[in-house]
Amino acid sequence: MKKFNRTIKRFLALCLCLALLAGSTCAEEIHVLSTGAWDYLDYWFTLPDGRMVLTGTKTEVTDNYTSRGWVLCMNPDRTVSWEAVEGDESGNFSGDRAVLLADGTIAVLFDRYINEQNVVVVKTYTQDGQPTGKTFDIPGNVYPIGATSAWLMLCQPDKETDADETVVVDWDGKELLRYGGDGIPGGTGNPVGNADDLVLVGFDRTENSRAKIVKLDGLTDKVLWETTLDRQLPDTAGASLWSGIKTEDGGYLALMIEYGSDSETLPDEWNRFLVKVDAEGRVQRIDGEVFERESLTAYQVFSYGGKTGVYCQRKQGRSRDSFRPLVFCWFDAEGKELGTTEVNLDMEDFPSVRQYLDWEPDKMNPEPTASVEAVIPAADGLWALASCYVSTTDSEGIPGTLVDSNVIVMIRIPELGE
Asked: Of 86, 240, 342, 396, which residue is most buried, by most CB within 10 angstroms?
């Protein structure tokens, strides 16, 4: 359910298979954050005292659709510490992301879409949720693509020429850097995590796009190094890197997605590989064996407890009776498989989802769906922020979503050995 306008958001033998550690998640391990049909949340960081900061959209559907920007600060026990809802007369306002600044305040980026232009509005809050009064707009149809405590990176697309520009500003709105491209010079990409060194993962803009990772020389458009990856499979139309993180050894880890030329191929059928490069961009390994062997679609890379995790879903047939399992693959620092853990959600915990499964079942093929937006480490374990809803497929195979069914929850992720 995330925005997907520039990047191409998705993706031995049996005797060697690792044991699957699976279990159902009981109601005590699920915390409901919202039952607003069109609401949305994403996680950005944890404060030093353990409180978690999320942003998103809070909506109201009457005769018209009205959206407000939403900031939610949650206590370590997942109760609400404070929240703020921002908006204006346009009724089209959403919270994009949040950053903890060097002075201890929280900067929140809001998107205000009006007259076919996206204006970024920056507001700051104290850690107790009080507005500081500091606010400014970044006009000119721009979209945030990354931020650190020192700077904010945006893309300014040109609809007529498709010649995007990247703009970097400080937290007073002063322009620091501008160059051609959407994140990656001459290409498309996103900064890796919150690393202050400018490393971006994405793809170039050749006819058959290729996955690449680029490091810039600080706040300049000078490329220190770049690595363009060969495709791993024949007959693929393009590739991209996605969901990058910085590793403890100073290198970088990301998912490579290869997609076919068949326009009817859905993103969850695209091929995924886990790519590791060192601090100088030299490829150390490319491996997608576990995803192929276990029939998994990989979506997100994260680190936790000295291990690398990858959030996946199983490529199984559609079912009206149950959610597809949420699978988490685990690796050590050298890329060795450690095993998998699994979350099986109980339909009885989601009555608002269940009621929509009978909506025109012969036409829409409804299926309960859980989509993990973020993986959040906390003092009491690892949690997934997820949207649970009913997805559909019409008679021509075109996917859709019954957004009225949406529920936002946090789900505890079982660790290896549980």
From this structure: 240
Would you list the DSSP string of 242-278? EEEEE-TTS-EEEEEEEE-S-TT--GGGSEEEEEEE-
Which of 237, 140, 139, 155 lies closest to 200, judged by CA?
155
Q: Which residue from 144, 164, 160, 161 is spatially nearest to 152, judged by alpha carbons? A: 144
Query: Given a cut of 80, is residue 26 above it in pLDDT?
Result: no
pLDDT in tens, 39-50: 999 999 999 999
**Statement: residue 214 has pLDDT above 50:** yes
**How many residues does the structure list for the chain?**
418
- Average pLDDT, stretch 293-301? 91
Distance CA 122, CA 408 (A): 25
pLDDT at 91 over 80: no
pLDDT computed for residue 102 by the predictor: 94
SS3 115: coil
Q: Are the CB atoms for 179 and 222 separated by under 8 Å?
A: no
Statement: residue 13 has pLDDT above 70: no
Of 265-269, 301-305, 319-323, minimum mean pLDDT range: 265-269
Tell me the two tokens of residue 263. Answer: 């326009």
pLDDT attached to residue 400:
65
pLDDT above 70 as % of the chain = 82
Separation CA 73–CA 209 (nearest Å): 39
d(C-alpha 169, C-alpha 148), whole Å: 11
The CA distance from 71 to 54, in Å, is 6
Adjacent-strand bridge partners of 409: 32, 386
Residue 200 CA to residue 374 CA, distance in Å, equals 19
CA distance 342 to 344: 7
Burial class (CB in 10 A: 0-12, 13-18, 19+), 359: middle
Strand 283-287 versus strand 271-277 pairing type: antiparallel
Residues 6+ apart with CB under 8 A from 137: 119, 120, 121, 122
Contacts for 165 with CB less than 8 Å, ≥ 6 apart: 155, 156, 158, 178, 179, 180, 181
Task: Supply angle C-alpha 366, 370, 374, rounded to 5.
Answer: 150
Can you tell me the distance from the alpha carbon of 58 to that of 85, in angstroms, rounded to the nearest whole number? 8
Residues 6+ apart with CB under 8 A from 126: 104, 105, 106, 132
Alpha-carbon gap, residue 274 to 378, rounded angstroms = 25
**At residue 158, what are phi and psi to the nearest 5 degrees?**
-115, 105
